[in-house]
Amino acid sequence: MGKRKKTARVSEDEEMKENQSSSHHKTLYEILGVERTASQQEIKKAYYKLALRLHPDKNPGDEEAKEKFQQLQKVIEVLGDEEKRALYDQTGCVDDGDLAGDVDNLKEFFQAMHPKITEAGIEEFEANYRGSESEKKDLIDLYNKYKGKMNRLFCSMICSDPKLDSYRFKDILDETIAAGELKSTKVYEKWAKEVSKTKPPTSPLRRRQKSKKGSESEALYAIISQRQDDLDVLISDKQIWWGSICCRA
After folding, report:
1. Distance separating alpha carbons of residues 108 and 62, to the nearest angstrom
2. Domain annotation covers residue 123
3. Quick one: what percent of the chain has pLDDT higher than 90?
4. Where are the alpha helices (DSSP H) in the chain?
5. Domain range for residue 84?
6. What's the pLDDT tens digit per position in 142-155?
7. Do residue 111 and residue 31 come from a single domain?
C-alpha cells in the first residue's frame, strides 16, 4: 500500500513539473515575441505586427488564420490590461479556457507563418484599411466586445490612433447607433461627450502618409530597431508600425 502511494506521488510530482515546464516555454509574452519586462507600448506594437499578418483582409477564406486572429485578440486582452497582466505574471494562468488550451499551437502557428512584412506592405494595407467597410466592421465588433469602452477598443483596433481617429470613430458609431444597429452605453456616451469638446484633426485618413518622414515615424522605427534581437523570429529589418499606447479602461 505504502509503495503504491509513493509511486502515485512521484507520478503526480513529475506531471506537475512537466506542466510547469511546458507553461514556462509557452507564454503569452513569447507569442508576441517580447520580454516579460516589455512596456505596454512595446506589447502593443508587437501585437499590431502579428494582427496585421493574421487580419481577415490579408487572409480571405483562411479559417485557421481567422481563428488565430481571434486568439491573438485574447492575448492582448490579458497583456494589454495592467491588472490582468499583473495577475497573469503572478499566477501564469489565463482566465480563458479556449486560449489557455491553444497557447502552444498559437506560438507554433506564428513561427510557421514567418512571412516578410515590409514597410511598403504595411503602408499599403493601412491605406486600404483605414476608412474601409472592413475597418467599420472591426470597429463595431470591438465596440460590442468591450461594451463601448473605447480605451480598450483602441488597444485592439489595428491601424488606429486615438488622436487621429476618435472623431471619425465617434461619427461611425453614432450613425450606427442612430440606425438602431448598435446599442449605446453610458461609458461610450461619456467618452463621446469628451471627444466632442476637442478639436477634430484635419484629414485624419491622409495625415499618416504626410508625416511618414517626420519625427514620430523615425522615433517609432528606432524603437523597433532596438527590439530587433527579441523579435527576429517575427519581423524583418525594415518593419515599422504605428499605434497609440495601450490604456486601461
Report:
1. 17
2. no
3. 24
4. 2-25, 28-32, 40-54, 63-79, 82-91, 97-113, 119-129, 133-146, 150-156, 162-178, 186-196, 204-210, 215-226
5. 26-115+217-243
6. 999 999 999 989 98
7. yes
C-alpha cell at 239: 518593419
**What's the distance, Cα to Cα, between the start and end of the chain in Å?**
56
CA 115 to centroid of chain Cα atoms: 18
Joined together, the cell numbers standing for residue 53 give 499578418
Q: 172 and 96 in one domain?
A: no
- How does pLDDT run across 202-223, given as a tens digit for each residue? 877 764 544 444 444 444 444 4
pLDDT score for 115: 55
Residues shown for the chain: 249
Q: Is residue 125, in this structure, part of any structural domain at all?
A: no
Task: Report residue 231 CA to chain centroid gap.
Answer: 16
Distance (Å) of CA 18 to CA 15, 23, 85: 5, 9, 24
Among 45, 107, 119, residue whose Cα is nearest residue 233: 107
Q: What is the pTM of this model?
A: 0.53
